[in-house]
Amino acid sequence: MSTTLDVSVGGPIARTDWVTRYRRHVFWCDLLVICLAVVSGYFGRFGWQPPVIAGVPYAVVGAAFVVAWLFALQQMRCYDGKVLGHGTDEYRRVATGSLNVAAFVAIGCYVADLPLARGFVAITWPLGTVGMLAARLLARKFLHRRRREGAAWSHRVLLVGTEDHVLHLLGRLRREPYAGYDVVGACLPGVSPLPDISTLPDISALPGMSALPGIPVVGSTERILETASLVGADIVMVVSAAGISPDALRELGWELVGTGVDLVVAPSLTDVAGPRIHTRPVAGLPLLHVEEPELAGPRRGVKDLVERLLALAALIVLLPAFAVVACWIRLDSQGPAIFRQARVGRNGRIFTLYKFRSMVVNAERERPRLDGRNEKDSVLFKIRRDPRVTRAGRWLRRWSVDELPQLLNVVKGEMALVGPRPPLPSEVAQYPRHVARRLLVRPGLTGLWQVSGRAELSWEDSVRLDLYYVENWSMTGDLVILWKTVGAVLRGHGAY
After folding, report:
1. How many CB atoms are located within 10 Å of the residue 220 CB?
2. pLDDT above 60: residue 14
3. Any transmembrane segments, and where (predicted)?
4. Are 344 and 439 in contact (CB under 8 A)?
5. For residue 79, what are the domain limits?
6. Would you give the distance in Å from CA 209 to the centre of its chain?
7. Domain boundary among 108, 124, 149
8. In the predicted model, is pLDDT for residue 281 greater than 80?
9. Nearest alpha carbon to residue 62 among 3, 5, 128, 17
């Protein structure tokens, strides 16, 4: 990918062309899906008959439906490069735009007294909406795969802030490469300004610049625009408490207007999801209001009821399969088919967790001699090829079948379908104070840890994901985790 840069102060900087290409691909995918939905609605409702409405052929009505749908998506800014490829806002906008066009058609037909066939709309609208969401999901997976392979499909980011804040933000951004933020350099306060930066041909000509661990220091906070131009950045990300005065930050925003470079301000607040954050302008200041995490209330009650009913239904359906698995375990090795273990639940209550036995009976007594082979830290104990795992156990763990008896824990109200990982009492005894917040909600049969690598996760990552879930729980998030759990189980990544 080639990018032409004008390094003169205030000159236009060409945005990386992957945004335009990806936006174009998404648009054509939406158009194809909508057209297929309209054709399906036409033939599904009328067959090969050429119907008309108010003297107008349905072919014209279908074409108008396509145009109106695309217009509604455009009005919802569904092709904004800031939402494409990451986060849930893209899907929300597509769903809202589709709902708007359906409401517009319904109101328009009512006001104009047009007898639009309800069967046509009933087929076309859900097919188009679900089809576009699925197409964008596939397009996003393609984009994420490209981003993991290299930085050509990512934003080029120039970080601005103090050393500690820059390194912290760098670690967060590189932890999730699929988000599409490729950090190309940093500007720190106190660094000597670069002389005549606009005359330097490329980054290699920067005289005597130092480097932080994993990131080059390419300039000072006094010449941010020039440095961004030189390194080809299309995003300047300023960390709060960056050593830049409010007036200087405001002037930087003015300078970036028309350059193709976006200004992003990263607050020091971390691991708080968007629904809990509300921006309220007061006296010219964009104040961030952070709501308390929802740890109780009616929606928690609904979650509890729905999960227990779903778990009960799953137990009834899977009961014959449970009997087959239990017989296999008993035939494969001596001992009971069900393994019971004390775990810590909500508010520190101890409960008995049920699993299909995947290890030999005396596994706990054999652990001390295996401590030296622990592949994790002092809190978690995991061995990739644990000799205590039985032949049947390897298969059970590979497909997470050993976890299914925990559905009984869900029915009893000791666990949830989705939640933090259920810890051992020995682990809880080593918790720092902040980690104990994991115990504010019921542990889950699955969770963010399950869909993010399972046994491959470090202790720190496991804690971070569990705390994020506790702080930002939502019904929609639970549905997403349940959906991703299916893929995680099928891939078997981190299951041992």
Report:
1. 18
2. no
3. 25-43, 55-73, 94-113, 119-139, 309-331
4. yes
5. 18-149
6. 36
7. 149
8. no
9. 128
pLDDT in tens, 377-399: 556 666 777 778 888 888 888 88
If asked whether residues 467 and 355 sit together in one domain, one would say yes
Mean pLDDT, the chain, rounded, equals 81
Most confident of 50-59, 130-139, 225-234, 246-255: 130-139
Residues 311 and 387 in one domain: yes
234, part of any domain: yes
**104 and 240 in a common domain:** no
More confident residue, 290 or 93: 93
Compute the average pLDDT of residues 349-366.
87
Whether residues 382 and 234 fall in one domain: no
Contact (Cβ atoms closer than 8 angstroms) between residue 447 and residue 420:
yes
* CA distances from residue 127 to 122, 123, 224 in whole angstroms, order as listed: 9, 6, 48
Enclosing H/E stretch for 444: strand 444-446
Q: Whose structure tokens read 């763990």?
A: 397
Among 114, 149, 184, identify where a domain stops: 149
pTM of the model: 0.69
Handedness of CA 260, 265, 270, 276 (dihedral sign): negative
Q: How many domains does the chain have?
A: 3
Residues 260 and 384 in one domain: no
Copy the structure tokens of residue 230.
């030189």
Within 13 Å of residue 91, how many CA atoms lie on the same side as its CB?
15
**Angle ∠(478,82,92) on CA atoms, nearest 5:** 35
For residues 334 and 466, membership in a common domain is answered with: yes
Tokens 């994020």 map to which residue?
Answer: 468
Question: Pseudo-torsion of CA 482, 483, 486, 487, nearest 10°?
Answer: -130
What token pair was written down for 473?
């729980």
Is 1 contained in some domain?
no
Q: Residue 328: what residue type?
A: W
Any domain includes 40: yes
At a CB cut-off of 8 Å and minimum separation 6, what does 233 contact? 156, 157, 158, 184, 185, 227, 261
